[in-house]
Amino acid sequence: MTEFTEIHPTLDNYWRAVILFGRNVASYKFALGKSLLEVAAKGTSVVSLSELAVPFSRHLCEHLKGCDKQVTSKSSRFLDECRKFNRGELTETGLVEATAKLGFVNVIDAFHIVDRSEIAVRFFADERAGVGAIRLTDDLFRMAQSYQRRNLPAEIEARWRLVETAWELSLPTSALVVDYDEVTGGLVAQSRLERRKAVAPCRDALNGYQKGKCFYCFADVSVEVGADDLGDVDHVFPHTLRFRIPGSPLAGRINGIWNLVLACQSCNRGAAGKFDSLPALRYVERLHARNEFLIHSHHPLRETLILQTGDDEPARRAFLNEAYRCARTEGGLVGDNWRPVIEHERAFGPDS
Fold it and tell me: What pTM did the predictor assign?
């Protein structure tokens, strides 16, 4: 987590550290994150537990309809109340009361804890003991007005979907494989027992770890469909290699998560864009760093990346080096060494 926040330590990156890192035993953190963004938009500093319970319970009830497993424990009194509401056996007032009493027992205390320590900023202060509320901080309000604010709900949703999918399939993470679906532009989870499940839009899943920036030039990108600056899902090793060298190991893995990044429209397809070019070697090194970061951060895509690129760091580095050699020789991309015209302040990856 330190590596993630020490470069470009913005409020939204501290927020992403909370949402993206650490082991999850329940999905309450995601519901609280989405709820905090909603209540912050209203501009009120002091939020009672009853007020917070409205969006918090709504998000959990919605997710329970699609995936009944929202915790790793065998039972949850709070989720049982949410299930009653979904079945029409509990009123909305009853649900809010149950949520205020049962839903926040651990998540408020644990929200700012990442890697067993508290992050450097707080997005709310716990005032349950005094007035039965939380107090939103200026940092949360400032983040709620930032450019990245519009990306954060989608990033939470994507992370939530990946986590609950692994739980729902009731499989060890080593048996879970996530693929990119070119037709839908989303991620699809497929176990080795051939059970498939649509998970999340690819942009939303990738964006948090790129801090809302273009992989190549670090310009801001959006994940909102229809936005003028919507990020493109780009293949670092161009997709055309699938047809240039059919049957090769590289061509067969070209759609893997290991090779997918978000790029701004200018870098991907602008006047001096990458299109089907092979990027300079420094961007392959950046790709390796991104993949290693995902693998070592307990991300649900960890096992997929290991399966696609290698069991350990030397093997994964060797895989990328061989992919680069194959693309330049067998793929005919010898003259390619694309790089963006302008590169903004570095937001992630090695400084090279």
Answer: 0.85
